[in-house]
UniProtKB/TrEMBL annotation:
<protein>
    <submittedName>
        <fullName>Polysaccharide export outer membrane protein</fullName>
    </submittedName>
</protein>
<feature type="domain" description="Polysaccharide export protein N-terminal">
    <location>
        <begin position="118"/>
        <end position="199"/>
    </location>
</feature>
<keyword id="KW-0406">Ion transport</keyword>
<feature type="domain" description="SLBB">
    <location>
        <begin position="338"/>
        <end position="423"/>
    </location>
</feature>
<dbReference type="GO" id="GO:0009279">
    <property type="term" value="C:cell outer membrane"/>
</dbReference>
<keyword id="KW-0762">Sugar transport</keyword>
<keyword id="KW-0812">Transmembrane</keyword>
<dbReference type="GO" id="GO:0015159">
    <property type="term" value="F:polysaccharide transmembrane transporter activity"/>
</dbReference>
<comment type="similarity">
    <text>Belongs to the BexD/CtrA/VexA family.</text>
</comment>
<keyword id="KW-0472">Membrane</keyword>
<keyword id="KW-1134">Transmembrane beta strand</keyword>
<keyword id="KW-0564">Palmitate</keyword>
<keyword id="KW-0998">Cell outer membrane</keyword>
<keyword id="KW-0813">Transport</keyword>
<dbReference type="InterPro" id="IPR003715">
    <property type="entry name" value="Poly_export_N"/>
</dbReference>
<dbReference type="InterPro" id="IPR049712">
    <property type="entry name" value="Poly_export"/>
</dbReference>
<keyword id="KW-0449">Lipoprotein</keyword>
Amino acid sequence: MKKLCRALLTFTAVISLVGCSFSPGVPGLSSKSSRYEKAQKEGVDYKLVVIDRKMIQSQKPFNYANYITNKKKRYQSYASDTEKSSSPIRKPHRNNHTSPTKTTGAVSFAGVSADDVKSNYQYFIGDRDILSITVWDHPELTIPAGDAPATHDVGNDGKFYFPYAGKIQATGRTVEDVRKDLEKKLQTFIAKPQVSVRVASFRSQKAYISGAVQQPNTLAISDTPLTVRDLISRSGGVISRKYTGQASLQRGNNTISIDLNRMLKFNDNRQNFILRNGDRLHVVEIDELDEWKKELDQAINKELILNPIRLQFELEKEKAIARQKKELERELKSEQAKVFVMGEINKPGTVKYQIEDGMTLAEAINDAGSLNEDTVNPKGIFVIRQESSNDSIPTVYQLPIASVHSMLLAEQFDIRPRDIVYVTATPSIRWNRVLGLLLPSLTILNTFENLTN
C-alpha cells in the first residue's frame, strides 16, 4: 500500500512537470522547437519568419487605407443585417470623389521609388511646349528678325517650324532627338552645323495635388524629376490639423495608397514615386474618414422615410447592432487600435496604436514598461500576426535580442494593430516556475512518507 501511494504521488508530480512544459505560460515558441523547422509549410499551427535585415527591407508599409476599409465593411455588414428580410438599401453613387482606398492596378507602382529611376529620367517633349534653339556661328537662324519670335512653339500636331529644316517632329521625343534631327536637316545648307536645343517653357504636362495641403496646386512636369515629396513641398506642406498621414496617387485608371508618415517622418522613399503627366495626388483629410458613414446614414434615413411601415422593425434591428457600431465608430474617430504585449515585460497588457504615427516593435515594448532584464530570454521576442482574414494560420515573427544589432532591427520592424508581442523567459526561470508547481507535490510525498514511517 505504501509503495502504491508513493508511485501515485510520483506519477502526479511527473504529470505536473510535463504539463507545465507545455502550458501556455511556458513558451512553446522556443528557438529550438521542432515546430520551427516546419516554418512556411502548410498544415502547421503557424509559419515562422525571422526578423533580420533582409526581412526589414522587404516589409510592406502598413496600409492605413485598407485598415479603414475593413472597418467600413464591418460597419456596413452590421447595417445590411437589417435589410436581409427586405429590399436592400442602396448607397448613393459618388461621381466626383476617388476613394483613397482603391488600389486597382497598384502593381504598376509597386517596388518603384524615386531613387530607383531618377538617374534614368528623361523628359519627352509635348504639345504646347516652347523650345529655344541655337545654331552656333549662325545668328541669323537664332536671333529673330523684326517681329519673329525668339522661340519655337510645338503645335497641336506635335511639330514646330525651323528655317531651312521645315517641320520638325517634337512631341514624344527628347531634346537630344530633336537636336540630332535638326543637325541632319541643316547639313544641306550649313557645313557641320552645331545645334543646341532646350525646353524654354514646360506647358504640355501637369501633375495635380489636393486635400490636406496648404496650397492645392497644379505643377508642370519638367526635365527635373518631380516626386511625391516634391509635389507636397511645393504646395506648402501638409495641414497638420487635417493631416491623416495617408494619400492616394491616381494614374489613369489606377490608384494606390501612399503612407506619408513613413515617407515624411521616417524618410522612407519606397513610395516617393516620380510623377507623370496627369498624375493626381490627394492627401487624405480627417473629415473624409467619416464621409462614408454620413452617406450610409443618409441612405438609411431616406429608406425609412419612404417606408414608414418598416420604421419600428428597423429600430428594433438597430438596437441589436448598436453596441458593435458604437465600438467601430469610436475606433475610427479616435484612429486608435490596440497591440497586446505579454510575457517577460514590466507592464504586460495592451498599448495604444496610433494609426497616424505608426508604431515599431521597440516602441511597443517601451510603452509596456520595457523588458524585464532579469527574466527575459535573449533568444526570443515573438510577434504573432494574422496577416489577413483569409489566412488559415498566423505568422510568427521571431527577433533574437542577444546583440545591439537586434535592437536596431526592433526599431525598424513595424507593428500593426491587433499584433501580439510575446517576450519569452529564460530556461532557468521556466524551470523555477515548474519547480514552484512541482514542490507542493513533493512536499505531500515527503509528509506521507513521514506519517507511514
